[in-house]
Fold this protein.
Amino acid sequence: MIKFSSLRLTVNFIKEGKQVVAYAPALDISTFGKTEAHAKKRFQELVKIFLKDISDRHVVDEVLTELGWKKVLVRNQQPQWVPPVVKSINLQVPIGA
C-alpha cells in the first residue's frame, strides 16, 4: 500500500437536500452523510479504501498522475506523492441569450 502518515486535501462539503456530500477534487472521489461530521468520517474511510484499491491493483502511478499529483524526491527518502493545489472560488457566470 502507499505509505502516507496523513494527507492534507481540499474537501468540499455541499448540502444536497437532507444529505451533505463530501467531494475532494484531488482524488475525484465523493461520499455523503447525514451531517458534515458524518460525511467527513465517511470520507476519511473512503480515502483509505481508495488508496488501498489503487495500490492492490498496482495502478498508483497511473491514477495519481492522471489526477495531477506529482512524485517529489525528498533527500535521503523515498519519493513522495504531492496532491495538486486545488482552489475553490465562487464564480459568476453570465448566461446570455
